[in-house]
Design brief:
Layout lengths: L22 E3 L1 H7 L6 E5 L11 H14 L4 E6 L4 H13 L3 E5 L10 H7 L3 E4 L5 H17 L4 E3 L7 H18 L4 E6 L3 H10 L4 E5 L6 H13 L10 E3 L12 H14 L8 H14 L8 E5 L3 H4 L12
Parallel strand pairs: 2-10, 3-4, 3-6, 4-5, 7-8, 7-10, 8-9
Antiparallel strand pairs: 1-2
Helix pairs in contact: 1-9, 2-3, 2-6, 3-4, 6-7, 6-8, 7-8, 9-10
Length: 326
């Protein structure tokens, strides 16, 4: 591993986090769900560090290493208004001393809260793309790249969510890190946004172990995870149908907080003192609870919930406050 201020090659990682991240038992939640005291654990990637923590830091250590090695002096990336990836890209840019442009969907809100507040604090420039689909957001990113190149800069683009094969390999490493801490596991539950986190875990642990909970961030989550996992592992003996992905927690949309997810947030908070976010980890916890109810996660098996971060988004979510008791 190289120092974040040093020249790097594409095979290297930058150093943004502290590893391994903690693996903690969730005994009170396990009892609440009818599981044994050693059945349920949480992998705390929210505690990685840098800019509020979260899973995107692992990916940025690799994706930004490639851009720095290529001579980029400006970083451009994209996301939703409360994107955790955007926030952590801004934090990484600040650590490296490289300016960051965030191209976000929609229009500027009346008040910048949650991740947006932190984006500004970290020094990123925010460009609003309007109401666009995926290709429209990519076109808005390209417009920023073209403008920067005309100004004599060397912009580098980090993909939406940091999810390409380079970023996904960071979670192949994380899967092996988890095994070194926990030994064999039966189920790892993870939120699925842009797909790279689940893809890397599938490459390390296998499609039968990883249970993804689709959050509605992209329209083709299953296909993305399948493609990225194949790019990481090189395996061609599995299909998208082999992946364990449940899509019943998307509800009315990516940014809509359902009663089911609200209840999961409250249950985890009041049994373990751990705060999840309403878009990603809250849905993952709700998926875990349903999997227990349905018998897909059973007493006597070892299950790990990946806490991928996202707490600042709770404070910017339009439906989270005031808190309503479940």
């Amino acid at each position: 591993m190289v120092d974040q201020g040093s020249p790097v090659t594409a095979s290297h990682r930058l150093s943004f986090g502290t590893f391994p991240t903690p693996l903690e038992p969730m005994r009170r939640l396990a009892a609440e769900l009818g599981l044994g005291p050693d059945d349920l654990w949480i992998k705390r990637d929210d505690l990685i560090g840098l800019g509020g923590g979260g899973n995107k830091i692992r990916k940025l250590e690799r994706t930004l290493a490639e851009l720095v090695a290529g001579g980029s002096d400006l970083i451009v990336t994209s996301g939703a208004p409360q994107s955790n990836h955007a926030r952590l890209t801004a934090a990484a840019g600040a650590r490296l001393g490289i300016p960051v442009v965030l191209v976000l969907e929609g229009a500027a809100p009346d008040a910048e809260t949650g991740n947006l507040l932190l984006d500004r604090m970290l020094g990123a420039r925010i460009e609003w793309a309007g109401e666009v689909d995926g290709p429209g957001l990519e076109a808005a990113v390209q417009a920023q790249v073209d403008e920067a190149e005309r100004a004599g800069r060397r912009p580098g683009v980090v993909p939406f969510g940091g999810s390409n094969a380079t970023g996904a390999r960071a979670y192949e490493d994380a899967g092996h890190e988890l095994l070194s801490q926990a030994g064999p596991v039966d189920t790892v539950v993870v939120a699925v946004g842009s797909g790279g986190t689940m893809a890397g875990l599938v490459s390390a642990l296998g499609p039968d172990v990883v249970l993804g909970v689709d959050c509605g961030a992209v329209p083709d989550a299953r296909e993305r995870v399948h493609r990225l996992s194949h790019e990481v592992s090189g395996r061609t003996d599995t299909s998208a149908a082999d992946l364990r992905i449940r899509d019943d927690l998307v509800g009315d949309g990516y940014e809509v907080l359902s009663d089911t997810v609200r209840a999961a947030l409250q249950t985890v908070a009041r049994t373990e003192g751990i705060i999840l976010d309403p878009v990603y980890t809250g849905r993952a916890a709700a998926g875990l609870i349903r999997a227990v109810d349905e018998g897909h996660v059973a007493p006597g098996t070892r299950t790990v919930l990946l806490h991928s971060g996202g707490l600042p988004g709770l404070f910017g979510h339009p439906h989270a406050a005031p808190w309503r008791e479940m």
